[in-house]
Amino acid sequence: MTSIVPGENSDLFINGFQIHIQTEDWGTEQKILMSRIFKNGSVFKTFKLAYEKIEKVETESLRRLALVKFHQTIVDWSYSEI
To answer: Pick from 77, 60, 75: which is nearest to 22 by CA?
Structure first.
């Protein structure tokens, strides 16, 4: 059985564009964190982060912490690149 932690969502307005960022844990079977940036309702960019590239993911609380950090990294990227 796969274990999945709750995701994060942010709605932003950057340079005249409506931006939605959705970050999800695909669980212990897929072992990936996925973040999608939607620009005016369509997928603009997708980022994937494999568990193996994260220092600690052994527990749900560590995966949740990694997901929140990953989500914030994508938010920061959006402000600098969109």
So the answer is: 75
Q: In what order do the strands lie in the sheet with 8-14?
A: 8-14, 17-25, 32-39, 42-50
Q: pTM, whole model, 2 decimals?
A: 0.94
DSSP character string of 8-30: EEEEEEETTEEEEEEEEE-HHHH
Of all residues in the chain, the percent with pLDDT exceeding 90 is: 93
Task: Say which residues have a Cβ less than 8 Å from residue 33's Cβ, sequence separation at least 6.
Answer: 23, 24, 25, 26, 48, 49, 51, 54, 63, 66, 67, 70
The answer to whether the CB of 23 falls within 8 A of the CB of 82 is no
